[in-house]
Amino acid sequence: MAASLNILIVAVVSLIAFSPLCLCSKAYGSGGYLFPQFYDHSCPKAQEIVQTIVAKAFAQDPRMPASLLRLHFHDWCDASILLDNSGTIISEKRSNPNRNSARGFELIEEIKHALEQECPETVSCADILALAARDSTVITGGPSWDVPLGEETRGASLSGSNNDIPAPNNTFQTILTKFKRQGLNLVDLVSLSGSHTIGNSRCTSFRQRLYNQSGNGKPDLTLNQYYASMLRKQCPRSGGDQNLFFLDFATPFKFDNHYFKNLITYKGLLSSDEVLFTKNRESRELVKLYAENQEAFFEQFAKSMVKMGNISPLTGGRGEIRRICRRVNHVY
User: Fold this and answer.
1) Residue whose C-alpha is closest to residue 79's, from 330, 331, 324
2) Is 113 tagged catalytic?
3) Residues 157, 76: contact at Cβ < 8 Å?
4) Does the annotation list 196 as a binding residue?
5) Closest C-alpha to 120, from 112, 109, 128
6) 61, 67, 123, 156: which sits with the fewest CB atoms below 10 Å from its CB?
7) Does 146 appear as a known binding residue?
8) CA atoms within 13 A of residue 83's CA, in its CB half-sphere
9) Could you tell me the sign of the dihedral formed by the alpha carbons of 94, 95, 99, 101, in that order?
10) Is 197 annotated as ligand-binding?
11) How many H helices and E strands in the chain?
12) Nearest-CA neighbor of 71 among 7, 154, 118?
């Protein structure tokens, strides 16, 4: 699974990726093994079913691929983001990064229902998230990769979701530290942040950049001021918190490298995006590389997604295969 940012990244991606990508927080180095052929015999049509339903959803709602990709990134651990409140669980849907922004839950349940009809109690909700994220990337023009499969699921962590998912105004070092805790590095951070090539963010996630970035009543000078003036028209000092803005205004529904081109011209929407270009020399060079070479970005993005999915997965009967993704099985 995507360890959250399946933990982090900052800050992903709905074509409501409201706020930065995220990763799932797991104990790095203590999991089992995943492999793309996991369901070849137990549920051979699994990947086809997921792909078909994602494609249908995209045709009806062009925002959905980004929403699914963001769910995967913001999943704190093993499909925990999908769980509703219960007597023993406080849902991650209520965490600050997800409240009023995470979406696509109904589609995941639709996929789960179809898979239960095909092969009951076989395909995990964590694997559904991972496959839907891959298919969402591909259907919007991005790269493909062999998804590591075989991950089981467990409970939720509201505190983990609140504390481990990078915030839109986190510093570069804070974001990098959160990635490193998951066994990811600076290259992974920059490439995975490229998922913000699709999706939206709310006014409340970047308003500070427009009016009071450093607490001195002045805007963020690393934000192109003409672009800032355009944003202020729909993101006032007060009100309009839920107004949506494209993370990549150039090609908002296409998975490409325009996100990085925007950063170079100081038109990254979120501070947590723009700092990749302004606050670290190595990160800046990667941004420039990916802006110039989309193939290099796609290749590294696919590698980093596989790496993230392999971070200490829950396997071997230590978790469960939920029958419904929003509830653990013992609720029945």
Assistant:
1) 324
2) no
3) yes
4) yes
5) 112
6) 61
7) no
8) 29
9) negative
10) yes
11) 13, 2
12) 7
